[in-house]
Design goal:
156 residues; 21% helix; globular
Amino acid sequence: MLALFEEYLATVPWAIYDVRRTFSPRSDGRFNHARTVKILDTGSRETMHAQLRACAQAARLEVTVGDHRFPDDQHSRAWRRRRRPDKSLLISDAEHFLTVAPATAVNKTGPAFPRAWAKTGSRRGAGSPRRRSPALDHQPPPEGPAPFSMNRRRAQ
């Protein structure tokens, strides 16, 4: 069964996603979460991972693989902003990263996200670049994932 899944992953399109998430404390000690996801590019698994590494290097972003809280998580993340390490339960926080995964998501922004993101301020997180790489500014067409590389225009 695992071999079939790996075969599936090798054949489906992959995407580079720009992900921003917020964490806002509630009075019961838990958090409200809000997020936005934007597809930056689509292509093969190998091509998307190579582009993520190139973008991260150009923008001097820290790259990590996986999340220690989720042992099966093997997704690479290029961090533009990380949550505060003290994990304070009293203030809103956010994270912003680029990642590569199968191209199954769509561009979306949760209704609470813009206000929640504004509440987190504009501080730079660890590993955030001083200047944004132009390769990270690519915006796909509104109808869904861009069927082209960040380095060439879509044929009309």
